[in-house]
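Bug report (template v2)

What were you trying to do?
Predict the complex of my protein with EPU.

What happened?
Run completed; filing so the output is reviewed.

Input:
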Amino acid sequence: MESLMIEGGHRLNGTVRVSGAKNSAVALIPAAILSESTVTIDGLPNISDVHMLCALLEEIGGTVSFDDGTVIVDPSKMVSMPLPNGKVKKLRASYYLMGAMLGRFKQAVIGLPGGCHLGPRPIDQHIKGFEALGAEVTNEQGAIYLRAKELKGARIYLDVVSVGATINIMLAAVRAKGQTIIENAAKEPEIIDVATLLTSMGARIKGAGTDVIRIEGVDELHGCRHTIIPDRIEAGTYLIAAASMGEEVLIDNVIIQHMESLVAKLREMGVNLKTSEDQILVTRSEGLKSVDIKTLVYPGFPTDLQQPFTSLMTKASANGIVTDTIYGARFKHVDELRRMNANIKVEGRSSIISGPVQLQGAKVRASDLRAGAALVIAGLMAKGVTEVTGLEHIDRGYEGLVDKLKALGANVWREKSQQNNRIDQYS
Ligand code: EPU
């Protein structure tokens, strides 16, 4: 087992370049299944979720190469191979194989997805959408079977605003006959990115990024070249790290509009930052004040940043409340932060952080991807050395984390660790 070691207390200085968006990447790669010819995607992050999806595309007969962030997928020889077990179980986003394979082959067998444990994560809205398009969907021994004679456009109202369901229904609907209207659709930037790729492949989609998406199905989709958007959550993670320990940190390759809720909250706390066209400069910020945040669907404050933000709040004066309205149980990082001397209580869907405190280095475990980011930020702020285990979660979503932090002057390294005696209840 490997650990990430962080010697806290070093101020961060320099530039960090943001990678391609993980949550786009994991949908763009399956979307390539829908094409009859080669799809090239540039700027993909070098993370395990991307490699896992590339391997899954190879399992169904695709030819896939990954070189310096560019993935080239030749989907021409793909077949509707059942994928009930194995790699599909390792990542949440394998659910996008359902929409993409249903769209192309009118059938698919996909094991129920894994991914971060953030409390219940149902996929009923995805299934409701597939059924509305004419698919028969059954759950047989932990795998979802989807079959359709043909897919027919439909009007689908999502009962819950869901990124995954919006994208998944879009993937199937681009190859359905006639018009599909998704109402109460999610509006996250990743949805626009996927719609852009599909449009370049010949799909006809209007309204992505609003809560009503209209899709006219087409008979065939073709290859294209697409550049992914920057990762707003990775950018936010470094922004929070810079707010906590930055001397002068430039975050490069961001779409500022994607960062508005976080930037507003950091300003409210008293963080010194300046934005330009595609960069954010953070300078040393002292005397931070606590704020309250409530996670909401985009453009509200992202749930994926509430855990890292909680670490920063330990440094701020007075009490701050973080409420997660998306995942009410996304608080496994709190016990770990407490080991590091944080003063945090969880009540229902909220954590209440009392500060300021000086965090202390400790041995902690990342229970999920963003909990990992929270612990890394806490480690940067802590006195002494912090050992973070559970790196498989961090590796799923952060490209070159150690190198990026080192380049900013942090003292971080990976090392083989002793067998962890704590019971691993998460993986
Ligand atoms: N939900 C349902 N039924 C469904 C789908 C979702 O009840 O059929 C509920 C969920 O339980 C949750 C809410 O709706 O309470 C929103 O879930 P959503 O479907 O939007 O989440 P997701 O698509 O599974 C993506 C990201 C997550 C991110 C959420 C929210 C990917 C692969 N994952 O998940 O990212 O937290 O949207 O923005 O895109 C991460 O990057 O760390 C991560 C967990």
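What did the reviewer find?
The first strand starts at residue 2 and ends at 7. The chain has a mean pLDDT of 95.
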